[in-house]
Amino acid sequence: MPTYILLSTLTDEGWKTIKAKPERIKEVNKEIEAFGAKVINQYAVLGPYDFVNVVEAPDNKTIARISVELGSRGTIHMNSLPAIPIDNFIDTMKKK
Questions:
Q1: 30 three-class SS
Q2: Which residues form the domain of 40?
Q3: What distance in Å separates the CA atoms of residue 95 and residue 14, rounded to the nearest whole number?
Q4: pTM for this structure?
Q5: What does the alpha-carbon distance between residue 58 and residue 44 come to, in Å, rounded to a whole number?
Q6: The domain spanning residue 10 has which CATH number?
Q7: Are the beta carbons of 70 and 53 closer than 8 angstroms?
Q8: Spatial distance between the Cα atoms of 96 and 84, rounded to a whole number of angstroms
Q9: Which of 4, 14, 46, 69 could form a disulfide with 10 if both were Cys (CB 3.0 to 4.6 A apart)?
Q10: How many CB atoms lie within 10 A of CB 77?
Q11: Alpha carbons 49 and 9: distance in angstroms, whole number
Q12: Tally of structural domains, the chain
């Protein structure tokens, strides 16, 4: 399955939710999997984003649906990036 990087920032409402119920993060992962995707890795980070998730999903449409569904709740803003494994990228660059 294709890999995607999800960069997310919490809204004020999202921070309130996480503070009151930190395990909500793992519940959202289960919701992502219900859409047919799989969370491979997840990190809380410092800087312009609050979380980085590495996700496998069947296609761009699935990731778009996840982004809209999660974003529509008003607790998170998300950027979704398709990721190319480096060996595939190198092979692509070698082809003429």
A1: helix
A2: 3-94
A3: 45
A4: 0.89
A5: 25
A6: 3.30.70.920
A7: no
A8: 19
A9: 14
A10: 16
A11: 5
A12: 1
